[in-house]
Amino acid sequence: MKKLITLSTLLVVSSFAVAQGGFEDPNDARTYKANEQERAEMKREKLRKHGKQDGKYGDKKGIGFFDENNAVKSVKDLPAAKDKSFVLLEGNITKRVGKKDFIFKDATGEVEIEVSRRAWQGQTITPTDRIQIRGVLDKEWDKTEVEVMEIIKK
């Protein structure tokens, strides 16, 4: 009797697995190809989530869509801009004030910027180098800073 109950339970459980698509036949090109693409996309998403692309850090170029017409283009306009506004500034990094924090100066004033490792793109920047920064305005209670996503040497 125990054998019969065990066998019937096993059949019921295995039929649910097959009905839900729990088995992938590598010889069936239709399902295997679709699942292979899905697995590849999941792997890419996991790498993106952890700051990687193709298994390497810091090899992403650009920041996606960036509308230069709607970006804040001078330091003096930053206080009037909304939080999370796109920023496009040209000037110089004058000094370092923290691990990722720097002072950026353009013709209209100075602002603190936060530069991620990815934004440097392998470039070495000195205070005499003219650069363009692309980023997002971050307004907090006590300070306003720009989170830099890309640095372009001019």
From TrEMBL:
Disordered, as annotated region: 27-57
Basic and acidic residues bias: start-end ranges: 27-44
Signal peptide as annotated in the record: 1-19
UniProt-listed Gene3D superfamilies: Bacterial OB-fold (2.40.50.200)
Keyword annotations from UniProtKB, A to Z: Signal
Record bears the keyword rRNA-binding: no
SUPFAM superfamilies: Hypothetical protein YgiW
Record carries keyword Signal: yes
Matching PANTHER family: PROTEIN YGIW
Name this protein carries in UniProt: Uncharacterized protein
